[in-house]
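for the writeup, i need someone to sanity check this before i put it in the appendix. the sequnce is what the collaborator sent (i think, or maybe the updated version? ugh). structure was predicted straight from it, no edits. if anything looks off just tell me and ill rerun, i have time this weekend
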Amino acid sequence: MASIRDVAKAANVSVSTVSRIINNNPAISAATREKVLKTIKELNYSPNSMAQALSNNNSYTITLIVDIEDEKSFYNPFFHEVMHGIEKIVYKKEYCLNVANLNTSLRNESVIDWLIKGKRTEGVVLPSTVMDSRIIKTLKQNEIPFVVIGEPVSLKEEVNWVDINNLKAGEQATRYFIDSHCRKIAYIGYDETKIFNRRRFQGYKNALQEGGIEFDAGLVIEGGNSRDEGYRMMNELLKNNVPDAVICADTLLSVGALRAIQESGRSAPEDMGLISFDNAQIAELSYPTISTINVDVNELGLQAAKLLFELIENPGAREQTLLISTNVEERETTAAGKPR
């Protein structure tokens, strides 16, 4: 492999001149810059990223903050899809992705303070679930670019964030059934404490109103997102108010809901359609397979990383909000996806 000295010798300049050009020093003339860059290309020279980092005080590292204690989120496939999306952009930019546990204490410092004081990161991605006003204040005071994944809740300061368009997703699921001539459309798994769930539920109500269907609180069942909860909520619904169609707030609970439908002697989609959110693998493995509102969580990570690098390259950029669109994935629990 060619070295920086080989480049300097071939271009008939000093090693320091080559180094300045690699680090975009504006003091070098255009003619010299062009000559050296051409030589670098001809010799297929690749600068040592670690040496560059030491010379220009750049860590070439992006940090994803996680909470290891939150096992439910950390082991969710959703998390790893998001991280994969982030890594794609980080790799293209020739940076490293560092995953740091929020609860780690290093030399009596929080991991955020440790990263900042040691200049160990150029930017931070963090889920809204771990974000608080102290972290935001620390990152802003130290001018560390950061992007939040998930819509922030009850935060007074403006921040850059990326999320699924959950309001539109709720509207999309409801309109899908309205277009299939369903009138009694239930929503199970409503959880007031989760902002994404509130947005989806609001989308459900919006679509009902637009479709001229009166909202019926008896068709809404609150609960968690486990299979057992799905089974419980669906049984509760079937006892009191049998719907034409049901929207499940989560794919896992839809598996339990489907079981309750089958045990009642009914089937989907013949007796009622069923659709869920998030295109988890379990939707394809279920019998019958479950139609979903597809959420591209890989794209969520991609867009978060793209936005972060925009902030790194343009520190004065205004705060931005990005919403990722969704689409219907028709499978066997809705009539259009049923094999004929």
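Residues 61-164+299-324 form a domain with the Rossmann fold fold (CATH 3.40.50.2300). The longest helix spans residues 297-313.
thx in advance!!
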